[in-house]
Amino acid sequence: MRTAEWDGGPSVLARAAAVLDAFGADTTELGISELARRTGLAKSTAHRLAGELVRIGWLEQAGTKVRLGMHLFELGQLVPRQRALREAALPFMEDLREATNSNVHLAVLEGIEVVYVEILRVRDSQPLPSRVGGRLPAHATGVGKAILAFSPADVVKARIDAGLTRRTAYTVIMPGPLMRELATIRESGISYDRQESAMGVVCAAAPVFGADGRVLGGLSVTGRAERLDTERMAPAVRTAALTLSRQLGAPLRRASTRS
Amino acid sequence: MRTAEWDGGPSVLARAAAVLDAFGADTTELGISELARRTGLAKSTAHRLAGELVRIGWLEQAGTKVRLGMHLFELGQLVPRQRALREAALPFMEDLREATNSNVHLAVLEGIEVVYVEILRVRDSQPLPSRVGGRLPAHATGVGKAILAFSPADVVKARIDAGLTRRTAYTVIMPGPLMRELATIRESGISYDRQESAMGVVCAAAPVFGADGRVLGGLSVTGRAERLDTERMAPAVRTAALTLSRQLGAPLRRASTRS
DNA sequence: CCATGCGTACCGCTGAGTGGGACGGTGGCC
DNA sequence: GGCCACCGTCCCACTCAGCGGTACGCATGG
Fold it and tell me: What are the φ and ψ backbone dihedral angles of A212, each rounded to 5 degrees?
């Protein structure tokens, strides 16, 4: 069997993780053979693993196919990084949406990417490239840059070393300019995304800090380029992020706080 | 090692599931020894499993302790039963919250319990016994009874056979009265919870149907007994549930639709 | 009517997983 | 201050859980 793609040792758990990771936003159901193909497992192995995963509730039988099970949703809702932040942030996010009449995002950093923890959309919202539980490269998003600006140097280094992948013509892909922008964000406490993650989408973002003074995530106001004046939104986002940080017990000293 | 507690065979996956299930709403971080104790695994086994789970992102290292990882949140957000329903329901839930100025719940049936998929709270909301991703016995909640009323007979039987556990003095714990109430709900399309899940908490709920005509979940308006007039809320909840069902492609025939 | 691909089932081999045990560090109670 | 209980970590020999090649019955469709 081909195991070369897994760096370490292909343990049962790694195989099971590969099975679950075979599903995606547009891949909600898979048959056994398709599962085996995507994971590189033998068909009989995929069959047995799927059966076992169904028995523990991580997969659900859908006819002869299989899909992610509710137990995973339940577990996911218990993830503390997400839960504590979302719970504390929700009221402020709703205020922010009402005040700005724009989409509001809450995200955390996971490795070198941001994961969206909550999204409040406005009624007439155009489609956005973000999804709750979805990932985007940190350097190509407003919240990502806000978080990176207040993260330890090795985190920024990891992001740069992994390659500043281009997502649009405006994505910052050079280390130098990115570092300079992060310095500016540290001064102003505000980060902008000017069509850097998706064409036509702009946002203003600000970092959220925890009780230990370290950055926990980012808050942003997002909208279409032709409708949203990011500079006008900046004070509102920053205020919401500061208020949220204060409620989380963050030691906010001056205008801009660094870790 | 003690494996008698697991019915089938204690596969690696079952052990890993036990490790993850050791965490809960109030148990966000665990040490290795505590983990071993709660799962009944040998300490060295718990240690190795935890290490492997960390490597695949299902757990996170928190100092020497360990907690659920962001990867589980990401996976959980992909669960189709939850995602499709929540996405379609959100706008209607917001309308419902605004119209009734009360907490709005969306839940699905998982086995014999309901799992809350989304909760919209009002500003001054008193604490509720519900949590997104949390479980409650189906027979003791408004949404649960709404779903049971339109579920196949064997589902209702399973719920009754598992025991109608009492949660408050008002919980329906006798099979006969429960069956009669479900019949009433089938007629009216409305289900009530009068302090049956928690003292002081009442709700009005209605079932949500999918394109195949089967019940997908339940929608409810919830509040404190002294402030919420459930009968006055009933038409709003039922309307929202019907509108949502129609958008989901449900074949709604008459005033009340059954599967 | 055969080719193809599906889900399912069986079964012998083997190395991944197991857990007992040991070890060093640490915190608190006496 | 010194004892002790408990912690996380690591090692290692045994064994059975997991693996995948193989085969079968069944749709589908060309």
Answer: -85, 5
Q: Please tell me the distance from the alpha carbon of residue A58 to that of residue A38, in angstroms, as a whole number.
A: 18
The answer to whether strand D lies under 7 Å from the CB of residue A41 is: yes
H helices present in B22-139, as ranges:
32-39, 43-55, 70-78, 80-100
3-class SS of residue B235: helix
Question: In 3D, which of A205, A242, A240, A236 has the Cα closest to residue A222?
Answer: A205
A47 touches chain B (CB under 8 A): no
Fold equal for B12-75 and B79-247? no
The CATH number of A79-247, from 3.30.450.40, 3.30.70.20, 3.40.50.150, 3.30.70.270, is 3.30.450.40
Contact yes or no for A70 and B132 at CB 8 A = no
Angle at B53 between CA A29 and CA B6, to 5 degrees: 80
Spell out the alpha helix ranges (H) of B189-229.
Answer: none
Residue-level pLDDT, tens digit, chain A, 259 residues: 333 333 446 799 999 999 999 999 999 999 999 999 999 999 999 999 999 999 999 999 999 999 999 999 999 999 999 999 999 999 999 999 999 999 999 999 999 999 999 999 999 878 898 999 999 999 999 999 999 999 999 999 999 999 999 999 999 999 999 999 999 999 999 999 999 999 999 999 999 999 999 999 999 999 999 999 999 999 999 999 999 999 999 998 655 444 4
B1 CB inside 7 Å of strand C: yes
Q: Which two tokens stand for residue A87?
A: 């719970």
A 1-30 near B (Cβ less than 8 A): 8, 11-14, 16-17, 20-21, 23-25, 28-29
Q: Which helix (H) or strand (E) holds B155?
A: helix B153-161
Beta strand residue intervals within A72-225, DSSP E: 103-110, 113-120, 135-137, 191-194, 201-209, 215-224
CATH assignment of B12-75, given 3.90.1150.10, 3.40.50.1460, 1.10.10.10, 2.170.270.10?
1.10.10.10
Per-residue b or e along A183-216, where b marks 16 or more CB atoms closer than 10 Å to that residue's CB: eebbeebbbbbebbbbeebbbbbbbbbbeebebb
Q: Which of A198, A157, A204, A197 has the alpha carbon at shortest distance from A178?
A: A157
Domain ranges of chain A: 12-75, 79-247
Look at B78 and A60 and tell me if their CB atoms are within 8 Å: no
Residue B114 pairs with which residues in a beta bridge? B109, B136
